[in-house]
Write a structure and sequence with these properties.
Layout lengths: L13 H16 L2 H8 L3 H15 L4 E3 L4 E3 L1 H26 L11 H9 L2 H5 L16
Antiparallel strand pairs: 1-2
Helix pairs in contact: 1-2, 1-3, 1-4, 2-3
Amino acid sequence: MEPLRDTRNRLLNGWQLSKLYTFEVAARHQSFALAADELSLSPSAVSHRINQLEAELGIQLFVRSHRKVELTHEGKRVFWALKSSLDTLNQEILDIKNQETVRHADRVFPSLYRPVLAGTRAGRLYPSLSVNFSHYADRQR
């Protein structure tokens, strides 16, 4: 697999991803103090990360008052996009982890595996089932 190199429109780096996670937790709780508890940070560290993220993105994410924080309109948009992305990534990882892989290295003749390919009932019963056959001619004989 070739690495992706197009970074022209990339706004995020690894450290910002950490700050985005801090933002997601703070937005979910609507509280820097509760986010700090979940993240094992101080509330001031959460506030500092959010301030840095807002400065780096050029977007105000929260409206802060004396005792509470609220998402701005832009903050809500970022939160829902981030939540959706994290949920999708989490589901994809779970799907990959739950996928079983069975490898069989013995030689199998096409006359044996063609009937298996014709039986699509397994695909309907087990939608995550993936069957891959590699066929190559043995030219070393």
